[in-house]
Amino acid sequence: MSETSVKPGCPVAGERKVFMTGNEAVCWAALAAGAEIMYGYPITPQNEIMHYWTRNVPKFGRRFLQTEDELSAGFTTIGGVLAGRRAFTATAGPGNVLMQEPLSMAEAMRIPVVVVIQQRGGPSTATVIYSQQEVTLTCFGGNGEGLRIVYSTSSLQDLYDYTIKAFNTAWKYRFPTFVLGDGYQAKMRESLNIYDPAARGIDMVPTEPFVGKPGKIGEGREAAHLRNAYSVEEELEVAMARDTSEYERVTPEIIEYDSYNTEGADIVVIAHGIVFRSAAMAVRELAGQGKKVGYFRPITLRPFPREQLQQAVARAKMLLVAESAYGQLLKLVKENLYGGPCNLPIKTILRPGVGITPEEVTEACNALLDGKGA
Amino acid sequence: MSKPVKIALAGEGGQGVQSVAQILMDAAALEGKEALYIPNFGIEQRGGVSIAFVQIGDEKIGAPKFKIGDIVIALSDRAVRRTQMYVGPQTLFVYDSGIQGVEGDLPKNAKQVLAIPALEIATKKLKPRVFNILIMGAVIGATHVVTLDKAKESIEKRLGYKFEKNPELRELDFKALQEGINLVAGMGVS
Amino acid sequence: MAVEMELQPKMPKCWNLATKPHKFCPGCGHGLILKALGQAIDDLGIQDRVVFGCDIGCSLLAWDFFNMDTVQAHHGRATPVMVGLKRANPELIVIAYMGDGGGYAIGSQHLVNAANRNDKITMILANNTNYAMTGGQMAPTTMPGQKTETTPYGRDVKEDGYPMLGPEMVAAITHEGTYVARGTVSKLLTLKSYLKKALENQISGRGFSFVEVLSTCPTNWRTNAEQTWAFLEQTMQEFFPVGELKVPPEAAAPTAPPGAVEGEGE
Ligand SMILES: Cc1ncc(C[n+]2csc(CCOP(=O)(O)OP(=O)(O)O)c2C)c(N)n1
Ligand code: SF4
Ligand SMILES: [Mg+2]
């Protein structure tokens, strides 16, 4: 394999507090993580990831290819990974739809691509602004079983942290890994700490080429024959059994969540991504007033922290699911309550493509606590 | 928990509302405060009204956009109409008194509606180009989200390269800032 | 008959013996193309540096055809996978191998844009005038009047247009450094020389290389050996002229001129 062109040293020295946009944060995280090549096709609201990346390409010895569409962006990213590079792409909305084809190949062939999604309104072109409507697509898109890892971020700090982490998760477990942000996080500016992973003791999982390894075929190495098509059902069965059991085995290591005050809570608010911030603010305020309210936030939407959710709501009287979609998180919650407290009443704030403020969550909780709307 | 101050600034492209938002945001950072700024963008902004949503507080900000602002500033007729939706009983609504034909469109549910002769002062006393800094002064005067010192430091940070070539501009900007503060102070807004 | 006979003699060194005899139908052109390609790779001594990308289509059967690193992609997507690989590691020699459906229909945007960017890859496209793997539907290259499963009364050019002229298009949209040719499985020596030049063009870093190969599909054409040959040699070649369309000056070594008579077999 050819030497990497990446210049030595981390583009982010040590650690410092900055105010920047989410797209900028993703770019710096990818640079800091040692990502070597990005492939992409323009779509709002992720464009600035490419813009910042291309500006930094010469300085840090990285590479970029603007492709003809997102099919190509996904498949070229696969090519980059096959060459043994930390390769990534970013997209949104209709681009995420096209991205599912290459992603299903990555899933089938266990190719550790990293994809950043900045969700926009849907269906169709809808808005370029914001939503949480790409949850189902990102978790389960493609003609497969959703053997992928999806981190839902709720702040620019998360975007930075989980972009770095995504490269490690992908290369460690060899499942395609998504950082699921949104247009708000992409475009907004707030404070975060950016850092050299090494300065925090984070080791980057080494990469290796799948093809084009050094040495002569038949002498130092065997030829790699990588496929995604099988002649008979039984072959597929073996491959799927291997991959699904592997996915289940590593799930406990991968799942992440956050919860607060769920012990004595009558109402547990469930939210992810940026809506979680509103949920957390509302819940903390209400809890501060002595009200029996807690929250649960799945950070990995896939795999989903099922047992942790069941535990968190075990003593609740009611759940409140808040999301900027018409029931995509809700579906995950219901599915993952099965076998646990699955008869709990679930109230919802469902706002496809529109933000949810802390005040709205507070109001909904208060109404439920007062027995209104229950 | 103290709530952040929510500011919506709206105007035509070129009126500089996004740069005011950025300078405010930087000033808040210098102050050691938490701040969150998000512009409207994309199709929404093409040929439309440019809006900056800024929140400044002592703790991390919750949702990036808000339903009702503490202060909503509209700098064009279209902006006056477009920003109605962000006005509620706690809102101070500020618009430029030079905007024609919006009397019927002014919000009826605001805490206070204020017309300020910002463009007139900028044009007559100073230079039209410092209009947006004068607006920033008005925001600071009405909300005290950042101190005058940090506001100046932040202007210096962002526009310093221009001041080097043209030191008069610094004086002009700082004057505009003060004019903006005075403008709302004189109007009985603390 | 020539097609079958040619499969018998010496196998290229870079073939994967364990998977021979191969899985293509008897009389299929794919095997011939991959034979010429294998010989070209042997001649150039690049087996260890090549990554062979096959598509979905009958080319998918070639996923273990060579004793070389091989990546099977999706229908139409061998091109972007190879583009991505080459961009990430320019020292590799990458080959995107596909059918006419993969290259000219579902993956046409990849062909056009890889050509336009002058990506340093080698694309080889088997033109068998139909979608073979899916059972013989119309392809962009289906001949006027040709019957397929989706043109049961023959391709009506008024409804479905004329066969796609791929190399002509690629030649028209590309600039210096590009190698473009159309070969045929009926002239394997010439084909081999085209494929060699296409690979050399990549190795030398000059640019994009594209070779369409007129191929046979007796299974879906429902032809016997004689009819197969006639369709390839007459019907197809009347519409699809064989020869080099674009040769970078540095690469212009003498080869058999277009249309030159060549002994069958070798
Ligand atoms: C996205 C997608 N659409 C459709 C198919 C089904 N499909 C498999 S092979 C093929 C056509 C192959 O024709 P061609 O590319 O000409 O190759 P040939 O089999 O003729 O060599 C099609 C349509 C697919 N695999 N993927
Ligand atoms: S169906 Fe046609 S193209 Fe496919 S292997 Fe058989 S003869 Fe070859
Ligand atoms: Mg075909």
Strand order of the largest sheet of chain B: 2-3-1-4-5-6
Strand content of the residues of chain B, in percent? 15-25%
Secondary-structure element order of chain B, N to C: EHEEEHEEHHHH
Structural class of chain B: alpha/beta
Uncertain spans of chain A, ≥5 residues at pLDDT below 50? none
* Rounded Rg of chain A: 21 Å
Oligomeric state as shown: heterotrimer
Determine the fraction of residues in helical runs of chain A and give it as a percent range. 40-55%
> At the third CATH level, what is the topology name of chain B?
Pyruvate-ferredoxin Oxidoreductase, domain 3
Could you say how many structural domains of chain A there are in total? 2
Tally of individual helices of chain A = 12
Q: Spans of chain B with pLDDT under 50 lasting ≥5 residues?
A: none
**Helix fraction of chain B?**
40-55%
Supply database-style keywords.
heterotrimer, B: 190 residues, alpha/beta, Pyruvate-ferredoxin Oxidoreductase, domain 3, 6-stranded mixed β-sheet, 6 helices, 6 strands, C: 266 residues, Rossmann fold, 7-stranded mixed β-sheet, 7 strands, 14% strand, globular, disordered N terminus, disordered C terminus, binds thiamine diphosphate, binds iron/sulfur cluster, binds magnesium ion
